[in-house]
Amino acid sequence: MEKERHMPTDGELADSGGDFLDEFLSEEEEALLDERDRIDSRPGDDPAPPPGLSRFLIELDGSAEEYAARLRAVLGAALDRSVLEGRIDSQVVPRPVPAWFTAACAGDGPVPDFARAGASHYTEAGHGNGWSLDNWLWRFELDCPFRTWSWWDVTHTAPGTLSLWLDAHGEDAFAADDLRWAAYTAGARTVTGPTHHRLPAWRAEPSAGVVG
Fold this sequence. Notes:
The protein has helices at 10-14, 27-40, 64-85, 99-106, 113-124, 133-138, 177-185, 199-203, and strands spanning 52-60, 150-158, 161-167, 188-198. By secondary structure, it is of the alpha+beta class. It is globular. It starts with 9 loop residues before the first helix and ends in a 9-residue tail after the last helix.
């Protein structure tokens, strides 16, 4: 069982001030900033793009754009917190963890239908009983050894189907139940994969849920 951790509240992060030593960034810190940028917009022409990407197929009911926006929002909140807690960029304004995700992690209270159904699908798929919010957020900290993937994009594949793309840094198999939990509770009916593809497969599909 994973160790329970205390994560600061959004208010604590906002009040933490700007005295961050972000002048000298490690390779890992720069990669985290790049990943955060990809949450809100389609990746551009990376000077050193990954040779391939890992793809999860997501089947859902309802609006694909609304789903993708929810997924981007919750992962963006986690990455914002990691950037601030790591004192990487003092100018980041952290977005709050969406209320629907907090409720789904708590497992009680007014959980929206899409999140409650998604949590049930996660368990039915054999991934366990879900995550506490603190443990899920910890997976995005730089010192967490378990998250070896980074966000790339989510795209329209077919009606009712999206593709979630990750940079798994060449790994064929990697831990991704943290990602699956977010994907399911955002409203997925099924999440299958990963499968591995070259970049043209991603480039052929339009991004979903991007800002602007």
